[in-house]
Amino acid sequence: MIVYLDTSVILRKILAEPGPAFTWGERDEAMTSELARVEARRAIDRLRLGGDYTDEMVATAHGKLTAFEISIAIFPITRLVLARASAPFGTVVKALDAIHLATAMVLRERVTAELQFATHDRQQAIAARALGFEVVSGA
After folding, report:
1. Domain 2-136 is of which CATH architecture?
2. Which of 20, 56, 107, 108 lies in the 20 to 30 Å Cα band around 114?
């Protein structure tokens, strides 16, 4: 079984945020979009600029993020992904969430194993369920 991780799941792990966190369990592999790299780094930078993170905390978070990225497959944002993200959805979907969902849809067509969608974002979970994904991770 493969799990697609949206950025909320990655950040909860990297930043050790409170609340239910994603657990690997029986999954064979994890994947995400290259969008997650950008979103995660922007989130860490916002913490620094807001005064919530010291330089040491930023360095630690970036180190954890880099190590995490090495451990998972990262799918590129292709023209096909962007075309799917631009198409209408059956639920309310923000622009960056649409890229995550579209990436997961393309991956689902290409992998032979079952693909789950992991998110901590309630609206993202609703949209993923509407697209037929089994959603895991507390949303």
Report:
1. 3-Layer(aba) Sandwich (3.40)
2. 20
